[in-house]
Amino acid sequence: MIVSVPKPLEHILTRLDGESPVFLVGCNLCAAACRVGGEREVRAMAEALTQHGVSVAGSRVLDGACNARKTRRELESCRAALEGARGVLVLACGGGAQSVLAALLDLRLERLPVHPGADTLMQAEQSGPAEFEQLCSLCGECLLDDYGGICPVARCAKGLLNGPCGGSAGGRCEVFPEHPCAWVLIGERLRRLDRLDLLERVIPPRSGDPRAHPRRLRRS
Ligand code: SF4
Ligand code: SF4
């Protein structure tokens, strides 16, 4: 899932200056799981804005803000409220916010500015009710086979592909001690698989930057 955190209310109020009434958009998938843009957070944002003198023209918690076609359909059903608004605040990831903008352009509501109400941090796995852990950084060229299924690109603070930096202490990372050293995990995993031989290979630098962007994918 895409993990985001709320922007501070003071920042949001600054950005919404002169745009009352505002229309609020949430997302019932990742943003709801992160407690950023579900029904509860959209309601709380509406109350907070109202208390600070910003009125709310309407709101909609989308069924997956990043789904462009659904977002367009859902926002079209809110056209009357959107037409009465002077700005849109999106409590979802940056992709969701841009999906909302695309829908507004398509609906000829291009005069409405779109503001992100959240900061988007990472793709991560949910490890608890409100806990998230980044295991993959979407590098575009998966190397997990070489490391027993544990990713050094995302999980080693230095992104080292050919062994540890030597700074680990007690199995923890020297840069971020709250995290286990990825290379300790890789070593333990490969030992268990009886594949320590994989560590003897040298993984060459990658030829291009697999994270180059923007990216587009169309599959048949
Ligand atoms: S190598 Fe790591 S960062 Fe790259 S795709 Fe695989 S898990 Fe993700
Ligand atoms: S201690 Fe481990 S995880 Fe941290 S930077 Fe060094 S090798 Fe990478």
Question: Tags for this entry?
Answer:
220 residues; 4-stranded parallel β-sheet; 8 strands; 30% helix; binds iron/sulfur cluster
Task: Please characterize this protein's 3D structure.
The chain is of the alpha/beta class. The chain folds into two domains: 122 residues, Response regulator (Rossmann fold); 62 residues, no CATH class. Helices cover 30% and strands 18% of the residues. The chain is built from eight helices and eight strands; from the N terminus they run βαβααβααβαββββαα. α4 packs across α6. The two termini are 24 Å apart. The protein binds iron/sulfur cluster (2 copies).
* Helix and strand run: EHEHHEHHEHEEEEHH
CATH superfamily of the largest domain: Response regulator
Using the coordinates shown, work out and report the CATH topology of the largest domain: Rossmann fold
Would you identify the CATH architecture of the largest domain?
Answer: 3-Layer(aba) Sandwich
The radius of gyration is: 22 Å
Task: Give the integer mean of the pLDDT values.
Answer: 95
| Small molecules held by this entry | iron/sulfur cluster
> How many independent structural domains?
2
Model regions low in confidence, pLDDT < 50 over at least 5 residues: none
- The strand count comes to 8
Number of helices: 8
Helix share, percent: 25-40%
Category from helices, strands and their pairing: alpha/beta
Oligomer: single chain
Looking across the biggest beta sheet, what order are the strands in?
Answer: 3-2-4-5
Shape estimate: elongated
Q: Report on the biggest sheet.
A: 4 strands, parallel
Distance between the termini: 24 Å
Instruction: Tell me the fraction of residues in β-strands, as a range.
Output: 15-25%
CATH class descriptor of the largest domain: Alpha Beta
